[in-house]
Design a protein that fits this description.
Elements (H helix, E strand, L loop, with lengths): L6 E2 L3 H22 L3 H8 L3 H4 L3 H25 L2 E5 L2 E5 L7 E5 L5 E5 L2 H6 L1 E8 L2 E10 L1 H22 L4 H7 L5 E4 L4 E2 L4 E2 L4 H13 L3 E5 L11 H5 L6 H15 L8 E4 L2 E2 L2 E2 L1 E5 L7 E4 L2 E8 L2 E4 L2 H12 L1
Parallel strand pairs: 8-11
Antiparallel strand pairs: 1-2, 2-3, 3-4, 5-6, 6-7, 9-10, 11-15, 12-15, 13-14, 16-17, 17-18
Helix pairs in contact: 1-4
Length: about 325
């Protein structure tokens, strides 16, 4: 498998093909323009021919400069875009003046396909397309050894699918150190709004939608009491607002919100524990994959969420039907 940061460029054949085509067009242009008798006559009638550069040398100089420009342009169109497999995603840089960006997450539900035309099969290059239910397909064209690269991408996808079950037994500190990803999510609180400094029950929704997404995918771990920057906050602020200000009271509130928004029939897929870290209480939610589609009910809507990269996204109806058929069919 490519190591993080290894670059992948288009097939060198593309460079040579573009160079040959450009050189042919250049030669035709030189024949048409510089060999024309009237152009030569017009130039030799000026003082430039005797005082600066003779016409044959002018042709050689112009031809050389144009060749250099063509070779540079052909090289740049081969050298960019450049792709990089890093941290479970494919990143790319469009050109020398562009910053590197994430092109597509290799999420656990991603599909990797290869397309080759006749010439591509002979010279072993082609296009690789990565698709997932929550994102538009992404295609990378003219890559060398596409079947080998596709297998390497599928290994990354498979590793991410296996990571979720293993994470359920991982130490708390290890999960936090790894940060948020396909199988881990952090939330500062269940209902305490640190910005407003008051209770905000709308914060139930981001917690519940991530649980739903984990259940619809390969499971994962959600930690309440950990900020997005991995700061250990604890759930003490949440508990201080309860009539029963302890972990039992917290779990009761969690269960009521879960039952209303997800359904208690799905509670079997979520294990709730309250480990201590840095003298603060964390709510750890170990989530196993559900045996059926799980929907989030919120504000009169019922939506199917899936996990893609380090975020949870609602699927439109057409994609939700496709995802359910593929995941639970």
């Amino acid at each position: 498998m490519p190591q993080p940061g290894v670059e992948i460029r288009q097939s060198p054949f593309l460079f040579f093909l573009r160079l040959i085509v450009a050189q042919f067009l250049l030669t035709v242009l030189v024949i048409i323009v510089f060999v024309a008798p009237e152009i030569e006559a017009a130039y030799t009638a000026t003082d430039f021919d005797e005082q600066i550069i003779a016409y044959p040398w002018l042709i050689a100089l112009a031809y050389t400069l144009l060749q250099a420009l063509i070779a540079g342009a052909a090289f740049l169109t081969w050298y960019y875009p450049v792709y990089r497999i890093q941290n479970g995603a494919v990143r790319w840089r469009r050109g020398p003046t562009f910053a590197e960006q994430k092109l597509v997450d290799l999420s656990a539900d991603a599909q990797v396909d290869v397309r080759q035309n006749w010439l591509g099969r002979q010279l072993d290059y082609g296009a690789i397309t990565v698709t997932s239910p929550a994102a538009a397909p992404v295609s990378m064209s003219n890559l060398p050894h596409p079947h080998t690269l596709a297998e390497e991408l599928r290994e990354v996808v498979a590793a991410r699918a296996l990571a979720a079950p293993a994470l359920l037994d991982a130490p708390l500190a290890e999960i936090i150190a790894a940060g948020e990803h396909q199988s881990a999510e952090f939330k500062a609180s269940l209902m305490w709004d640190y910005r407003r400094q008051s209770v905000n029950k709308e914060l139930y929704e981001p917690v519940m939608k991530n649980l739903v997404a984990f259940m619809n995918a390969n499971g994962g771990v959600l930690l309440i009491g950990i900020g997005d920057d991995a700061e250990v906050l604890g759930i003490e602020q949440d508990m201080s607002t309860l009539k029963k200000p302890n972990v039992d009271g917290f779990e009761n509130v969690f269960n009521m919100a879960f039952g209303a928004m997800v359904g208690m029939e799905n509670r079997q897929y979520v294990e709730v524990t309250f480990p201590q870290l840095a003298e603060k209480t964390i709510c750890r939610l170990n989530v196993r994959p559900a045996a059926h589609p799980v929907y989030l009910r919120y504000q009169g809507k019922e939506e199917l969420y899936v996990r893609t990269g380090n975020s949870s996204q609602a699927l439109p109806v057409s994609k939700a039907v496709q995802y359910v058929a593929g995941r639970f069919g």
